[in-house]
Amino acid sequence: xxxxxxxxxxxxxxxxxxxxxxxxxxxxxxxxxxxxxxxxxxxxxxxxxxxxxxxxxxxxxxxxxxxxxxxxxxxxxxxxxxxxxxxxxxxxxxxxxxxxxxxxxxxxxxxxxxxxxxxxxxxxxxxxxxxxxxxxxxxxxxxxxxxxxxxxxxxxxxxxxxxxxxxxxxxxxxxxxxxxxxxxxxxxxxxxxxxxxxxxxxxxxxxxxxxxxxxxxxxxxxxxxxxxxxxxxxxxxxxxxxx
Amino acid sequence: xxxxxxxxxxxxxxxxxxxxxxxxxxxxxxxxxxxxxxxxxxxxxxxxxxxxxxxxxxxxxxxxxxxxxxxxxxxxxxxxxxxxxxxxxxxxxxxxxxxxxxxxxxxxxxxxxxxxxxxxxxxxxxxxxxxxxxxxxxxxxxxxxxxxxxxxxxxxxxxxxxxxxxxxxxxxxxxxxxxxxxxxxxxxxxxxxxxxxxxxxxxxxxxxxxxxxxxxxxxxxxxxxxxxx
Lengths: 243, 229
Hints:
CATH class of chain A: Mainly Alpha
Helix content of chain B: over 70%
Number of domains of chain A: 1
Number of helices of chain A: 9
Number of strands of chain A: 0
Strand content of chain B: under 5%
CATH topology of chain B: MetI-like fold
Number of helices of chain B: 10
Distance between the termini of chain A: 31 Å
Oligomer: heterodimer
Helix content of chain A: over 70%
CATH superfamily of chain A: MetI-like
């Protein structure tokens, strides 16, 4: 272990950045941007799909939601990224020239939306039926009782699985290396090749990922504590898992 | 709108490029599942042993693995597994470095995930079962092997199999070190015939059909087990 050379991070890679350290920090920024933007896409789409899967008396919407989840859950993320990058621009001319960063955000967002939809659905279904009826009884429309009665509780219930999904999205953003987005994993592979200092480079990149994961974990725990409704504890069997 | 060349979809292309990768993906999934469950169970037992010197390193390993992206773990092992290890496999070792490294990586990585599942499974067994085993004079090892683990394993079978489906999807990530799996097979075929779009589409369909069929089977199994309980 004595022959580590951390000065490798001060060397000049001879490109856009004056040192490998600055390159890595920029790559970390790309990882965070990909992950956060994909998270927004996934939360919006996932909530929508999750909600329509629980709507009463709309079997076709429910079927559409189920099909969405099955489609995006049963194809590996890397294959989905290749579909967005190689296939969709060729089939849909309007998607030509879209930068790979955007395509990766969409791919990761759609992939994760299926998992979030599953969690939103199980969060809503974990609530007692009486909540829905109470909303109807006071004369709310469907949109109103979702907005004021069901969703506020359902989102609180699914904060723990959402936390692990948010951590997953950071980890999964590493797959963007495959279409040359300049994020951390891409940096790790290139810097390892150029400097032959693989251990130092990988250790630093791994540390970046671990720090990101810890930060999200703490942030979500804070949100959970802030939004807690006193005396109301519902255990949800929301689907988690995955990498 | 460009036209798809359907003549790309023929058995020659499949058998020349894809089948080899398909076998590797399946082999990797099976070996990683079996190895992962074995090491995962050991890790779970360490974590539940109540002894800090066993619990702490196991927890560090499991939480560490679970907070790093799989692609980074694949890169780490590819970097760290020494050349002398591949030499143990003779000429296979020099020709299939990425593949051997991938197998080791997946066993080590999945062990962390399987250990969490097995831990939950062991904890789901009522305390009375363990006490009953002790009462008839069983040692810790006998108690685990004959009473706790068989039940824990059966209770967790659907979850273990769901994890295996995720594992199968994740085998595509060996792309990072250029191992020849099913996705690589499709990609190579697409490159050789200048038909990447057709190749990626077919890859997506094949992965989808396999994963969908498997998760349907797991759902049925889940129902069956639920009735027995």
